[in-house]
Design goal:
- The protein is α+β, with helices and mostly antiparallel strands.
- It has 3 domains: 68 residues, Orthogonal Bundle (Arc Repressor Mutant, subunit A), CATH 1.10.10; 94 residues, 2-Layer Sandwich (Alpha-Beta Plaits), CATH 3.30.70.980; 70 residues, 2-Layer Sandwich (Alpha-Beta Plaits).
- Strands 3-1-2-9 form a 4-stranded antiparallel beta sheet, with helices on both faces. Strands 5-6-4-7 form a 4-stranded antiparallel beta sheet, with helices on both faces.
- The relative contact order is 0.18.
- Belongs to the TACO1 family.
- Its main location: mitochondrion.
- Pfam families: TACO1_YebC_N, Transcrip_reg.
- One of its GO terms (molecular function) is DNA binding.
- It is found in: Mitochondrion.
Amino acid sequence: MSGHSKWATIKHKKGAADQKRAKVFAKLIRQVEVAAREGGGDPAMNPALRTMFQKARDSSVPIDTIERAIKRGTGELEGVTYEQITYEGYAPNGVAILIDVLTDNRNRTGSDIRSTLKKNGGSIAEPGAVGWQFERKGVIVLARSVDEDDVMVAALDAGLEDLVDEGDTWRLMCAPTDLPAVRAALEDASIAFESADTTMVSTTTIDLDTADAARAVLRVIDALEDNDDVQDVYANFDIPDELLQTLDA
C-alpha cells in the first residue's frame, strides 16, 4: 500500500495554516454534533464521536463547546439537523475528488459545489464515478526522526498496516476502527505524532509534476474548503517532494 497518494500528509501540512481560521472550529463542531446524533452522546460507546471529540481537542476546541455540540446532537439542546452528502467530481488534470459535506440545505450546497468546480476548471461527476478509487483508512503522521523500529514495535499489535516514508514524515496507516488503539499504543510508548485522523486514501494516483498543474488542483480544493458546508476534500494526486517544497515557499 506504499503507492498510495501523499494527500493525507499534504492535508496535514495545509491544516497547520488552516487552524488559524475560525471556520475550522465550526466545521469540527458540526462533525461532533452529527456523530452524537447518529451514535449517541457517550464517546465510550460511540467510536465516531470519540474520534471527532479527540480531533476537536487536538485543534484546541474548548471542552465546553464540544459538550454543547454533543447535547445539540442528542437533542438535549436545540440545534440544526444536518444531512451528510458526498459529492464526486474532477479537478483539473483529471484528478478525482470526493467532497464530504454536512448541510441543512441540500439544494444550496449542491449548487455551490457545482459552481465552485466549474469556476476553477473542475466538474461534477455522477455518483460512483470516482468513489471506487478511494478507501477509508486511519492515518497518523509522525516526524521522520522517530525510529521506524520503535513505531513497529509499539503499533504493530494494535493494528498498524503500513508505514510509509514521506521524506520528513512517516505516514502510518491502519483500519479506521483500529485508529484509537494505534493512537493509544503510540502514546503509551511515548511516541509523539503530529496528527491522527480517519481519511479517504486513494488507491490510484495522478502525478502532478509541474507547478502550474499542482497550483490548478490546489486552487480548486482550497475554493471547495472555503465553503462552510464542506467538511473534507479527498483527492488522488501526488506532488513530488521538491515541487511541494517550492509551492510551500
